[in-house]
Amino acid sequence: MIANQDRPDRALTRRRFFAVAGAVGVSASLAACGANADNGRDSTGSWQFPDGRGGTVRTEGTPRRVVAFTGSAGALVDYGVRESIVGIFGEAHDRDMLGDLDPDSVTVVGDAWGQFDIEKYATLEPDLLVTDSYVLGRLWYVPDDNLSKIESANPNVVAVQIAGQRLPDIIARYRALAAALGAETATPAVAAAEQRFAAASQAVRDAVAVRPGLRVLAASATPELFYASDPRASADLSYFTELGVEFVVPDQVDPGGYFQSLSWETADRYRADLILLDDRTSGLQPAALADRPVWRRLPAVLAGQVAPWSPIFRFSHAATAPLLERLATTIRDAQRVR
């Protein structure tokens, strides 16, 4: 493992970075470090934390300059990490993802999908890069074709695995990372958020109990296709299923594993009482779908039972409790209409 040491020259300077920008990425060396390390310090006193891609990141000192995906940065802030976050990338002004993090207090390395300013990143001299991983082995909002250059500027990358993981476990991972970075994660604010999450989870259970048999479809819409999401693949939907929500499960999921792509002619393949519609700006919202006959004929649409769904969010108790509360209200207000 190549470690950035906890001293003034611990990271590559901009000049040194460009001298080695063609270097081979270090994913393999990360994987070679082993996957069973404890959080924080190991027996030698080095800092360490498991990487979701396999292996363990190790450095001689606790990372003090962190660049993170907006949702990762927001989650770490929720658990007390503040001064060490020096840069962000992703949708850099998305308040829901950032939470209490002020984007003007950090350097924006990228502000949209595919944007990642490698020179600006190197200039920050980061100790650690943190992001999610929705597809095994790939980094969320980190361009694949620039990964080796990014890792040559800083080989210490922690990817928090999202695909196939339980929502509470992912939240616990971020809390553990915050603690490993030196944050106090047992504050009254954190405890209150955890209690709110537990209460919101129970509210979903209670709502399902008074609406037995309610069938829910989580979906996304584009001009070309209607996507029926597989609840088994998404961390939030699978957790909602644990709480008792009955979801439509597509019978022919696309290779990526998250959804089934349907043409608009076949968008009525799955009938549901309630549709949770992807609320990201990249997808069509109900007003934009009103002129599509198949959409208008769906039972949930006819009944006015279409609610927003946020499939990308920051993984903390503070961020996910409101999502659960919204779901509980939506289910409680819905009726069976199929």
Descriptive account of the structure:
This protein has 338 residues and is α/β, with parallel strands linked by helices. 33% of the residues lie in helices and 18% in strands. The protein has helices at residues 14-19, 27-31, 70-78, 95-98, 118-123, 147-153, 167-180, 188-210, 235-242, 286-289, 293-297, 299-302, 317-333, and strands at residues 40-41, 47-50, 56-59, 66-69, 85-89, 107-110, 128-133, 157-161, 215-221, 225-229, 246-247, 259-263, 274-278, 306-309. Strands 9, 10, 11, 12, 13 and 14 form a 6-stranded mixed sheet that branches. Strands 6-5-4-7-8 form a 5-stranded parallel sheet. Helix 3 (70-78) crosses helix 7 and helix 8 (188-210) runs parallel beside helix 13 (317-333). The chain is globular.
Q: Keyphrases for this structure?
A:
disordered N terminus; globular; 18% strand; 338 residues; single chain; six-stranded mixed beta sheet; alpha/beta; five-stranded parallel beta sheet
Chart the SSEs and their pairings.
Layout: H1 14-19, H2 27-31, E1 40-41, E2 47-50, E3 56-59, E4 66-69, H3 70-78, E5 85-89, H4 95-98, E6 107-110, H5 118-123, E7 128-133, H6 147-153, E8 157-161, H7 167-180, H8 188-210, E9 215-221, E10 225-229, H9 235-242, E11 246-247, E12 259-263, E13 274-278, H10 286-289, H11 293-297, H12 299-302, E14 306-309, H13 317-333
Parallel strand pairs: 4-5, 4-7, 5-6, 7-8, 9-11, 9-13, 13-14
Antiparallel strand pairs: 1-2, 2-3, 9-10, 10-12
Helix pairs in contact: 3-7, 8-13
